[in-house]
Amino acid sequence: RKEVEQDPGPFNVPEGATVAFNCTYSNSASQSFFWYRQDCRKEPKLLMSVYSSGNEDGRFTAQLNRASQYISLLIRDSKLSDSATYLCVSWFEGTASKLTFGTGTRLQVTL
Amino acid sequence: NAGVTQTPKFQVLKTGQSMTLQCAQDMNHNSMYWYRQDPGMGLRLIYYSASEGTTDKGEVPNGYNVSRLNKREFSLRLESAAPSQTSVYFCASSVGVRNEQFFGPGTRLTVL
Question: Is residue B95 within 8 angstroms of chain A, CB to CB?
Answer without folding.
Answer: no
